[in-house]
Specification:
By secondary structure, this protein is of the alpha+beta class. Helix content is 29%, strand content 25%. It is built from four helices and nine strands, in the order ββββαβαββαββα. The strands form two sheets. Strands 1-2-3-5-4 form a five-stranded mixed beta sheet. The longest helix is centred in the last third of the chain and has 40 residues. It starts with 46 loop residues before the first strand and ends with a helix.
């Protein structure tokens, strides 16, 4: 059967759905918002991360959150940049792209290809670049271009935070020199004067939220690379508490991402030893 070249080829390996069987059916909370048992606001959703999936890219990573969020990222570079508008000082140029699959969300939030969708993707791409630039040693790549492409396969909440972590993994998997991995974590707060901030909210929780926050951290350096938030009904002290909670979540996610990167390097070394 001839190949359909119009389709985007997925990863050569995929994770079986049985991986989440022990998670207690975390993905079922999307279907019944009112029937889902309340979870600990400080608890992190189960995270699966794997680097080095795509042979067509120089670096790649896949991140999945319990509850349905799935992001696939690919990285290329450095390549010689002939475009005008390179940054002053002769450093490198980081290009970020964020795309949302037409089947990523539940229901029709917006029409595929509409102006609203394009604006949302451009904003997410700009936020992705802002979060990743402090982590990449762009001065080591003068007049060169690095490219990262993030594809949101399924939106189960905390999509931008998952994309930040996946993109940082993809760049590291491509061998790009980095100060540290950028780890993303999202929070939201439901209506109500006593409602707490919730780590890694799901899509139903984000839909009901009156305030949202996304932070990215370089844990080894203890440096914040980006803070994005908005909403109403929260005091400055509440926002400060949410920031501390988000940074703590980034520190807790960091070992999982590091281990996935180490496992990818071990697989690569084993494959090279086998072919040698």
């Amino acid at each position: 059967m001839p190949l359909d070249h119009r389709r985007v080829r997925g990863p050569e390996e995929s994770q079986p759905p049985e991986v989440w069987a022990a998670a207690g059916g975390a993905g079922e909370e999307e279907d019944g918002e009112g029937d889902a048992a309340p979870r600990d606001p400080c608890a992190l959703r189960p995270l699966f991360a794997r680097a080095g999936l795509l042979s067509q890219a120089e670096g790649s990573a896949y991140v999945e959150l319990g509850g349905g969020t799935k992001v696939l990222c690919a990285a290329w570079g450095p390549r010689e940049a002939a475009e005008p508008g390179l940054p002053a000082g002769g450093g490198g140029w980081l290009l970020c792209e964020f795309r949302r699959a037409p089947f990523a969300g539940r229901g029709a939030r917006w029409r595929p290809g509409s102006v609203t969708e394009r604006e949302a993707e451009r904003e997410a791409a700009a936020a992705l670049r802002e979060a990743l630039e402090p982590a990449v040693r762009l001065a080591r790549y003068p007049r060169a271009r690095l490219a990262v492409s993030a594809l949101l396969l399924q939106d189960g909440g905390s999509a931008l935070a998952a994309a930040i972590s996946a993109a940082a993994l993809a760049l590291a998997d491509a061998g790009v020199e980095m100060y540290d991995l950028a780890v993303g974590c999202a929070l939201c707060r439901s209506p109500g004067p006593t409602a707490p901030w919730m780590l890694q909210p799901g899509e139903p929780e984000e839909r009901r939220a009156v305030a949202r926050l996304t932070v990215a951290l370089l844990p080894a350096l203890n440096q914040v690379s980006v803070v994005l938030g908005g909403g109403q009904g929260s005091s400055p002290d509440a926002w400060a508490q949410a920031l501390r909670l988000g940074l703590d979540g980034c520190h807790r996610l960091y070992p999982v991402l590091r281990q996935s990167l180490l496992r990818a390097a071990q697989r690569r070394d084993a494959a090279a030893a086998t072919t040698a």
